[in-house]
Amino acid sequence: MHIVDTTMFFCPRSGGVKRYLLAKHSWLQQHQRGNRKILKHTLLVPAPQPAADDVVACRTLAIPLIDGYRFPLSITGWRDALLRLAPDLIEAADPYVPLIAARAAGQRLGVPVVAFFHSDLSRMLSQRVGKWIAPIARRYLRTLYRGVDLVLAPSHVMLETLRESGITNTALQPLGVDTQIFNPERKDSQLRSQLGLPTNTRLLIYAGRFAREKNLPLLLQAVERLGAPYHLLLVGGERDQRLSRHATILSYEAQATDLARVMASCDVFVHAGDQETFGLVALEAMAAGLPVVAANHGGLAELVSDREGATVQQLIARDYCEAITQLFERDIATIGTAARERVMRNYSWDSAFRQLMMRYSHVVAKPHLVEHLLSPVSR
């Protein structure tokens, strides 16, 4: 059986979608039984080709976008690349050219196509273009998703968004975390001194894309209002840069282990984005033993409760300041432990991918091959 994942959300600086795909690839390889390889997994992504096994670059016309993303314009070229791979199942991780091409290839090959709702297109366009475009985007998604076998949503709120848009061929599919990489044991007691900060600094961290919907100016306003001993690290910039006495930008961490070290060495993870379909980076911070202060919106609201941190209803600096200071009045270590326990209990990649294989078993014509992956691994 050959599974192909395809997306434009795959570049040297991309985030959650790329981590999901690479984690899936690793898990599928680990769950082959002995030397008998009954399953092949391939990623079809935009050029230039990343350095990874079983990654095929589709060298079609592309427009460079923010953070190195490239938008393929040739549906035919992408479709033909899928046809050459001859998969038994295609999963597309965005609602753009790759999914349109996947639908066409799936129809030509007679194989199922699964779409993953990683990006809320209608909400994104509403914020950037205007609310008038939301009904148009929803009609586009209804038409697009009507031609696939299954649409996966990573959170309950995104599942409801799909259903409110009239898309009913849906299923809930949460993501997961590598809890060996994101682990409190990676804490580095020298991080503060390396950054030139006092040892008593209350270190807040955000990691991810520096996109408008992440509301990073709000976090900067909050930490400036808090003042000493608080300091905010923003991980994901072009280069290391001290913004002020209370905020520092650190460059993008390509290696998960490096990001995990920085995370585990901080006190609290903060996130002001209100459009997260899931919130994978917040979950990684929780796995690293950090409490989380996040907007009570989107997928983040489903990951964080008072037990694991705090949520903020209004996206204003004053409310973030209050949530952060109140959190430090509690036992930070106990809250961080509870955060990691929730991840260990509910969000391992193993449990996520076992559930995904069960989803696949309902749409593929060879369910016994999928079930094979769910049996104990033969070493």
In CATH, the topology of the largest domain is named Rossmann fold
Low-confidence stretches: none
Q: What percentage of the residues does DSSP assign to strands (E)?
A: 15-25%
Which structural category fits the helices and strands? alpha/beta
| Biggest sheet details | 7 strands, parallel
Average pLDDT, rounded to a whole number, is 89
The CATH superfamily title of the largest domain: Glycogen Phosphorylase B
Helix tally?
A: 15
CATH architecture of the largest domain: 3-Layer(aba) Sandwich
Percent range of helical residues: 40-55%
Describe this structure in words.
- The chain is α/β, with parallel strands linked by helices and 379 residues long.
- It folds into two domains: 2-176 and 348-374, Glycogen Phosphorylase B (Rossmann fold), CATH 3.40.50; 184-346, Glycogen Phosphorylase B (Rossmann fold).
- It has helices at 16-30, 75-85, 97-109, 121-128, 134-146, 156-164, 191-194, 216-226, 256-264, 280-287, 300-303, 317-328, 332-346, 349-361, 367-374, and strands at 2-6, 40-46, 55-58, 62-64, 70-72, 89-92, 113-116, 150-153, 170-172, 202-207, 230-237, 241-244, 247-251, 268-271, 292-295, 309-312.
- The strands form three sheets. A seven-stranded parallel beta sheet has the order 3-2-1-6-7-8-9, with helices on both faces.
- The model has no long low-confidence stretch (mean pLDDT 89).
